[in-house]
Amino acid sequence: MIDSQAVKNTCNASVDSKGFCFYKATNGIKRHLAVDTLGFPFFTHCTPANLSDDAGLVEMLTLNIDYFKSKPVNIPKITILLDHGYHIDYLIKELEQVYPQIMTKIRLELSTKPSKQEKAAQGKSGFVPTIARWVIERSNAWMERCKSLVKYFERTLSHAETKINLCFIRLMLKRLAATS
């Protein structure tokens, strides 16, 4: 599952690393996160907030293209769930320019979104978690529990990305320590 999260900046942020996201009316950065079915990260990437979700996803996958190049073709495709903020046709075109065989190894899929009628039939209203998409939202919530990730305090995007990785390392170490 892949999603992005816009994060407000503080006065510490450098001018080069921050931008304004018109969609969420946020001045800061976007964190792009690819997680597995348990919510642990595969890839993380930070961009200025004015970069679109699609462009940020293409950047993140391009930086990690060796992962897909090393994956054998004879095993099943990796299904990547996206929310409705992404445009699959654009993503396929851009990713094939970077690595022409990538679509033989991955499948991009928009997550299902319950209609108002389906919500009413279930007796629910407002926000209803969709199948499997709640996992990435939970991962974003895990990041928000780290005080240094509530806002963008760092001077560079690479420092912000490192903080995200440290947050998840800490989380995974706590889980490993709890089982022993």
Question: Which terms would index this structure?
Answer:
38% helix; alpha+beta; four-stranded antiparallel beta sheet; 180 residues
Number of strands: 6
> What is the structural class?
alpha+beta
- Mean pLDDT score: 84
Order of helices and strands: EEEEHHEHEHHH
Shape: globular
**What is the overall number of helices?**
6
Largest sheet, if any? 4 strands, antiparallel
Q: Residue share in helices?
A: 25-40%
Low-confidence segments: none
Radius of gyration: 17 Å
How far is it from the N-terminal to the C-terminal residue, by CA? Answer: 29 Å
Q: Which band does the percent of strand residues land in? A: 15-25%
Task: Give me the secondary-structure topology.
Elements: E1 2-8, E2 19-21, E3 26-35, E4 41-48, H1 53-63, H2 65-69, E5 78-82, H3 88-98, E6 106-110, H4 116-122, H5 134-144, H6 157-179
Parallel strand pairs: 5-6
Antiparallel strand pairs: 1-3, 2-3, 3-4
Describe this structure in words.
This protein is of the alpha+beta class and 180 residues long. It has six helices and six strands; from the N terminus they run ββββααβαβααα. Strands 1, 2, 3 and 4 form a four-stranded antiparallel beta sheet that branches. β3 (26-35) and β4 (41-48) form a beta hairpin. α1 packs parallel to α3.
Q: What does this entry show, briefly?
A:
The protein is of the alpha+beta class and 180 residues long. The two termini are 29 Å apart.
